Here is the input.
Amino acid sequence: MNTNSEFDLNKLNTWIKLNYSEETVRNKLIGQSLQEIEIEKYLDEYRKVKSSKKFTHGFSMIGIGGFIGLIACILSMIIEHPHWNSVFLYGATSLGVIVVMYGLYQIFE
Here is the structure.
């Protein structure tokens, strides 16, 4: 394995951006004539970086959805007009729940 870990991380990030499968990454590493132990280390790091990005995205979506739900709840309590109250109570709250569910999907996928 190369001694420059920053170069390795850049290579892994490039593969993630190009949405390479693990088999494609393995074939690229075999093409670089690396040993099997080094290939497994690369693949483990590839999986960790890929799942870390998904977790970060998922938790940020949960936060955004929770914030939308909070704002919808506050606005539905403040606004007295029945039509707008229903818009915030049902529409914005539903949007918040959908965003939270998408975040959970990203985390548990």
User: Anything to note?
Assistant: The chain has a mean pLDDT of 87.
